[in-house]
Amino acid sequence: MRVHRANLDLLRATAITVVFIHHVGQYLEGIPEIAHQIMAFGGFGVDLFFVLSGWLIGGIFFREYGQKGSVNLTSFWARRWFRTMPPYYAALILSWAAVFVARREPFDLRFLFFLQNYSDLVPYFKISWSLCIVEHFYLFLPLFLLLFLRVKLVPYACVALILLSFGLRVYHTGPEYPKFGYLITATHFRLDGLVSGVLCAYVYYLKPASWKTFSSWLMGIGLIGGCVSLTLYALDSTYLYSFGILALSACFAGLLCLCVNKSDWAFARTRAVYAIAISSYSIYLVHALLINVCYQYMKDRGVWFTLASIGLTVIFTYIFHASVEEVSKKLRDRFFPSPAPVPAPELPAGMIAPAATQVEEVSPVIVRENGGITPGG
After folding, report:
1. In whole angstroms, how far apart are CA 85 and each of 20, 49, 116, 155?
2. pTM here?
3. Cα separation, 292 vs 127, whole angstroms
4. What SS3 class is residue 159?
5. 157-204 residue pLDDT tens
6. Would you call 275 helix, strand, or coil by DSSP?
């Protein structure tokens, strides 16, 4: 039986909501500048998705490794890619068709191989940059973990990767926060959140006796990280790119620990939260295109524009989720069945732990059976 954590649903729903607000806010007119700045901060919701994705994909890996002492890499990769790629390519076709009709944009072959995030200009389907990062992560993570599990150095290797990504951003820090492009979207600049999530999963599933201490420390560090990132953002500091992303990743990792340790909150168990969370990958894939459609065909840049963007996104998300995402999941489960149930780790007294669980599914940037979401430029 699959254990469902409603608190993580709340994180997913919050993340996609702030990302959506961020994208709508880019086009709104007639609102105070402070409102634009608050909405723009929603763009960093991608870092929450990265942390969640690292936690969930790491959990899939460590649960199987803990039970069998190894991981079936063929099944691991097949289930990940069969789950994420069909919806991605379907949304890619829609996005390219729209720009081809609008401006005769040629098709960019980099999109077929998830390489568009290594460019200063993503010509269309801009939100796909984070999916590129996660696909790269899916490819190399199992090899990385198997190597360092053998020498029992996973925590040190994770910290080293986080510091490497941070160091590369420090090296490239300029007088201003970089514009959307290579410095923001390239995989090696954005490993902090993903690796932080994996590190949390490692301790939770393979070192459960250390989880209480680890999570307590990380929640404290996360609180500091949240204060630091908000301060840098408010001051429009040049260090937001280097230190801010690291601090925000720590903040979201601490928030993840809090949600894992606590019993599900009442609001997290509501149907609205669940519906948004379960559809988050579809929302991610279609919402930016639909917001742009509203921008092109509506003169209003206020309330009616916002309502139209929400309405179209709800309608097309429902269609896309039912006709593409759900079909993709069924085909994946038919050809690549999920591994057998894996016992949950025994945690110290007072910690929340699931009963026997089946390996949880996750797609691109988040979710239980869903994918990630991210802001574009």
Report:
1. 22, 18, 15, 30
2. 0.89
3. 12
4. helix
5. 999 999 999 999 999 988 888 999 999 999 999 999 999 999 999 999
6. helix
